[in-house]
Design a protein that fits this description.
Number of helices: 9
Number of strands: 13
Largest sheet: 6 strands, mixed
Order of helices and strands: HEEEEEEEEHEHEHEHEEHHHH
Bound molecules: guanosine-5'-triphosphate, zinc ion
CATH architecture of the largest domain: 3-Layer(aba) Sandwich
Structural class: alpha/beta
Number of domains: 3
């Protein structure tokens, strides 16, 4: 992918994306309000039926809104691009109404549990999922990382590993675990220059996700001066952090650094993948997908499949064994204990 200039990328996110033609699923009738005076906005956080949004034309203006009747039961989540009517001044006590949710480009979802079919959308329109993993304190647990990467691929969102607390441990062993998957990564630590991280975030919308205590709030505060995300204390006994952040919040990266948005999510304990299908995951591995055309019908490509073409390709030396086993590890993370 060619890197656009920071300026172009920022414009891309704030204008071009918002300007995407709105698709109307139902023809308007003269009885339906047209909302021609509605303004475009972006949902940055949700709290008990109240939506905090920023206006497209004036991202510094923060407005509180509620869903309006025409939306019915349609959900509105962080990252949604919406249209607003009513009082959009953002003045204290003012309340605007969301009358339309624009078509989502991506949807990052998780099920509470692998057996729980109820899907929860975490965020809409994200382009990148940043999986924040501490190299120590708490010890990296690849379970959640695998599951998050699988969810990202499934959603058509690019994963990025952000390895924190590099002052405490060597990143090399963890990097090696993810090398066969070709997942991009960046290494950082508290107090270090955040430029290498920022470079990966500029001009796009990224979701940050990770176990409590991995240093996500510390990172967010470094990326967005003034974000004031609460930094928790890792419990000496369990080595885990307290859940100091409570709700997902979308933050604007400083315009001086090129702009873009990050969504800080609260410490996530579980990441159910009941919705994950082997076929959708395979789409993110074009080399394996090509080989799998020789699989018998209905092959799940799991290690237990007797005639999976992926095994034949490994035997023939066409593909690295580690790549196939890493793909299978992601695939089986759906059923693995959550960690
Ligand atoms: N040694 C070391 N400690 C760090 C680093 N980054 C953060 N910490 C510490 O790790 C602890 C947890 O950091 P947070 O930023 O609150 O972690 P979090 O992931 O936001 O945790 P929650 O808010 O609970 O979700 C705090 O005591 C931080 O000071 C780092 O690079 N090195
Ligand atoms: Zn197969």
């Amino acid at each position: 992918m060619t890197r656009r200039s920071a300026r172009d990328s920022y414009d891309h996110v704030t204008q071009e994306d918002f300007d995407r033609p709105r698709r109307r699923t139902r023809p308007r009738t003269k009885d339906r309000p047209t909302y021609d005076d509605a303004v475009d906005a972006l949902v940055v956080t949700v709290d008990r039926g109240r939506y905090t949004v920023r206006l497209r034309e004036e991202p510094d203006r923060v407005v509180t809104a509620m869903k309006s009747r025409p939306l019915g039961r349609k959900g509105v989540v962080v990252g949604d691009r919406v249209r607003l009517v009513g009082d959009t001044t953002g003045d204290e006590g003012s309340l605007a109404r969301i009358v339309e949710v624009q078509e989502r480009t991506t949807v990052l979802r998780r099920t509470a549990d692998d057996d729980d079919p109820v899907e929860r959308v975490i965020v809409a329109n994200a382009e990148q999922l940043v999986v924040v993993v501490a190299l120590a304190e708490p010890e990296p647990r690849t379970g959640l990382v695998d599951r998050a990467i699988a969810a990202a691929y499934d959603a058509g969102i690019e994963p990025l590993l952000c390895l924190t607390k590099a002052d405490l441990a060597d990143p090399a062993p963890l990097v090696e675990v993810y090398r066969p998957l070709d997942v991009a990564y960046v290494v950082t630590q508290r107090g270090a220059d955040v430029a290498p991280v920022l470079e990966r975030l500029v001009g796009r919308t990224s979701v940050l996700l990770g176990h409590s205590g991995v240093g996500k709030s510390t990172l967010v505060n470094a990326l967005v001066p003034g974000a004031h995300r609460a930094v928790g204390v890792v419990n000496d006994v369990t080595g885990r952090g307290r859940h100091t952040s409570t709700s997902a919040l979308m933050l604007r990266l400083p315009e001086a650094s090129g702009g873009g948005w990050i969504v800080d999510t609260p410490g996530i304990r579980s990441f159910g993948l009941a919705h994950l299908q082997p076929q959708s995951l395979l789409r993110s591995f074009p080399d394996l997908d090509d080989l799998a055309v020789d699989c018998p019908r209905g092959c799940t490509h799991a290690a237990s499949e007797p005639e999976c073409a992926l095994d034949e390709a490994v035997a023939a030396g066409t593909v690295e064994e580690a790549r196939v086993s890493s793909y299978r590890r992601l695939l089986s993370s759906r059923d693995a204990p959550r960690g």
